[in-house]
Amino acid sequence: MNKRTVIVSGGMLEEDFVLPILKNEATEFIIGVDKGLEFLYKHEIKPDYIVGDFDSVSRELVDYYREELNVPVREFNPVKDASDTEIALRLCLGLNRKAIWILGGTGNRIDHLWANVQCLQIALDAGADARIIDGHNQIRLLDKDITLKKSEAFGPYFSLFPLEMPVDELSIRGAKYPLKNHFLKPNDSLCVSNEFEEDEVTISFVYGKLILMETRD
Q1: In what order do the strands lie in the sheet with 129-133?
Q2: How far is it, in rounded angstroms, from Cα 96 to Cα 201?
Q3: Which residues contact 161 (CB under 8 A, 6 or more apart)?
Q4: CA distances from residue 38 to 59, 70, 106, 127 in whole angstroms, order as listed
């Protein structure tokens, strides 16, 4: 079984979705990030690390984990050049963690969501598989071809967007809306909300990076 590290950030955390992940034996390492610490405390889950500037969580809670449970804490000044989630992600990479799930990375603040999506490139460049996941979405970055299996899919829909630069010669096989050698530009919405037509969908391209969003209602 592939072991994973889970970052618990301060965005949307749905109990019915998050708790089974945190308590699953595949989850080997947990990092609590700022307000995400409140969720962990409420459900009596001890993180392996705590990270943040702690501008949205009580000092008493941070001190409890640091002093009573001896959890390592990395505290940063609120005036900093990186988000708390990015700092946690870099910590994972420094600890040589290769399978990383980010929970609480989505929510009401679209600016926070987009910052988290861009942070995935840090993990991709380091050879790690990092994903932002909530009850309805799984977001990851691709820099090479991939085959999705319907039996293992996060949801029935998937969408593709270029990250930063256009994606050249994009092909999609096995989907309801196939594509061949398309030049996908950042302002192109062609690849929104596709579906499986066959048991496997193959996504291939020769240049660029793709944001892959797997979704369900």
Answers
A1: 73-75, 49-52, 27-33, 4-8, 99-103, 129-133, 137-142, 210-215, 157-162, 194-195
A2: 30
A3: 186, 191, 210, 211, 213
A4: 11, 17, 16, 31
Pairing between strand 210-215 and 179-184?
unpaired
pLDDT tens digits, residue range 1-13? 568 999 999 899 9
Q: What is the rounded distance in angstroms from the CA atom of residue 146 to the CA atom of residue 104?
A: 26
| CB 119, CB 149: distance < 8 Å | no
Write out the two tokens for 122: 């840090």
Residue given tokens 């949205």 in the structure block: 56
With cut-offs at 50, 70 and 90, classify the pLDDT of residue 54.
confident
CB neighbours of residue 150 within 10 Å: 14
In this prediction, residue 34 carries a pLDDT of: 86
What are the respective helix, strand and coil percentages of the chain, to the nearest 5? 25, 35, 40
Q: What is the pLDDT of residue 81?
A: 62
Q: Which residues pair with 140 in a beta bridge?
A: 212
pTM of the model: 0.92
Beta-ladder partners of 171: 204
CB-based contacts of 111: which residues, under 8 Å, 6+ apart? none
